[in-house]
Each structure stands twice: as structure tokens, then as C-alpha cells.
Amino acid sequence: MAFAPPARHLLRAKDLADARYFEPLEVDDLARAAGLSRAHFSREFRRVFGESPHAYLLTRRLERAATLLQNTDRSVLEICLAVGLRSVGSFTTSFTRTYGVSPTAYRAAFPPASRQAQVPGCVVRAYRRPQHRTFREDGAPERT
Amino acid sequence: MIRIANAHLWVNDQEEALEFYTKKIGFEVRMDATLPEMGDFRWLTVGPAGQPDVAIALMAIPGPPVMDADTAEEVRNLMSKGFAGTVFLTTDDCRASYEELRARGVEFTETPEDRPMGFDAGFRDPSGNSVRITQVRELAAV
After folding, report:
1. Residue B141 belongs to some domain of the structure
2. How many Å lie between the alpha carbon of B106 and the closest alpha carbon of chain A?
3. Is A72 within 8 Å of B31 when comparing Cβ atoms?
4. How many angstroms separate the CA atoms of A98 and A114, rounded?
5. 8 A C-beta contact, residue B105 and residue B125
6. pLDDT for A30-78, tens place per residue?
7. Which domains does chain A have, with CATH numbers?
8. Residue B55 belongs to some domain of the structure
9. How many domains are contained in chain B?
10. Does residue B51 belong to any structural domain of this protein?
């Protein structure tokens, strides 16, 4: 078997958390990706990366949630599920602990997503044209 | 300096496309906003996590008056035939990306092949849009 430094296994787990945070990943899955027992994995991960794998995965999810709160108009529940968390209660608690404000308050600090959306001018022009554009000329005889 | 901000793809179903491009391809949602003043037009953009300044807008095919019914039908026809548009992605390792995406259920229409420009594979999104993923060969120093 080819030699691989131990940190490479841990990086595989870290990459998995970064790439697949929206799936129902748990620390057990990360440990499996690293090929280590859960207890050994958690200890080694913390030693190498300075925080527990649980905290790393959670903060990755919260960071994405914060972005989605800012850039989308999805509900808090939808965002909670979209970042791989299942309980909106614990999501709100973790979010508030991390950012100092609740998800709703965090969102309220930014303009609504609909105001931030940089919709191209051509699209705005096409979609904002009034729908009732008949001024009775349709049925009128063509002018000569 | 002119740079690319967004390019758009027509999609049959924005939710389906969103699911595909985020969960299977691994892109991130950049913006998802519905604008009531534009008849609930949904501006939905996605892009690769490591490339924050370029995104693909996943655009629903509009109805009249934005697009007349015949044109919308033509667009759907072109999409179903795979001629509506293509996204060209690049990767450091085509075979690894192929294996990764295939494991997530992406159905490839072409497995990685060695071509003059590099290793290249292709798949379709749920609307039929073609997506290529290429590991561009480094040009020999001249």
C-alpha cells in the first residue's frame, strides 16, 4: 500500500465536510472518510486543524446558511434543511451563538434578496412590460 | 475591462435544475430571489465554490408576453434535442471528477476521452443542456 501521511486522511474528511455539507453528514461519516475510528479521528482532527470535526462541519453549514439568508428569499426552515441540518431549533440556537443574532435578525440587516438580485436590464425590460398592451388598435382596420 | 459575470441556461424546471447543479455538480447558490414586480420572475444563479465572480443563471422559459408560445416551444424542442446551450467546465482531473459526479448519479453521455485539448467527458442536465468537463492539456512550451 502506498504511503500517505496521516494528515492526508484527515484532509479527505475535511474536504468531504466542505463539499457535501448539505447532505446529512455526521462525524461518523467524516471518520469513515478518513479511515479512522471516531474517537481517534476526532482527536487527530482537532490536533491537526485546531477544532473538532463537529465544530468544523457545523461552522461550514452556518457560513453557508448566513450567505443564503443574505442572498436568497428562502425561509429559515428551508435554509436549515439546505445546509444539511434537520432541526430548525438547534440551527437557530447554533446560529445565534455563532453570529450573535438570530437567523431572522441576521437577514434583516441586509436589503431583501429581491433588491440585491442583479437581474440584467434586458430581463427586467422583458418581464416588466405591461401585460395589457391592447389599446383597441388590434381590431381596427389597418391605416393606409 | 470586460469580464464575464453570468451566462444563462434555459431550464424546464428551476427546482430540478437547482437540485442538479448544487447537489450533483456541487455548485453553490449565488442568488435566489423572486421578484413580484416582475410577475414572480425568479433570478436563480449558481456557480462553483472556488470561482465567486462567475455564475450561471438558471432561467425558466417564460410565457407570453415575455416569450410567445411558439418561441417557448421551439426553445423546449432545442433543449430536448440537446442543442439549446452548453456549459464548458474545466477540472484538474477529468477522471476523478467523472467518478465523483457519476457516484452522485450524473449520467454521462461521454466517458473521459483523450482528445487534442485534453481529457474530456460530457453529461446532460435534466433539461437536456449539454455540460462538458475537460482537463485541459498543458501546452508544451514553444
Report:
1. no
2. 16
3. yes
4. 26
5. no
6. 999 999 999 999 999 999 999 999 999 999 999 999 999 999 999 999 9
7. 6-128 (1.10.10.60)
8. yes
9. 1
10. yes
CATH number at residue B59: 3.10.180.10
Q: Which amino acid is at B124?
A: R
Among the listed residues A59, A113, A104, A110, the one whose alpha carbon sits nearest the alpha carbon of residue A83: A59
- Supply the range of the domain harboring residue B85: 6-136
For the entire predicted model, the pTM comes to 0.80
ipTM over 0.90: no
Measured distance CA(B20)–CA(B17) in Å, rounded? 5
Question: Which of A74, A113, A129 lies nearest to residue B65, judging by beta carbons?
Answer: A129
Q: Which of A72, A119, A123 sits opposite B32 (nearest CB)?
A: A72
pLDDT one-digit tens code per residue, A67-93: 999 999 999 999 999 999 999 999 999
Chain B CA closest to residue A23: B23
- Measured between CB atoms, does A113 come within 8 Å of chain B? yes
A23 within 8 A of A86, measured Cβ to Cβ: no
Q: Which positions ≥6 away from A73 have C-beta within 8 Å?
A: A112, A113, A114, B32, B33, B34
Hey, what's the cell of B11? Answer: 431550464
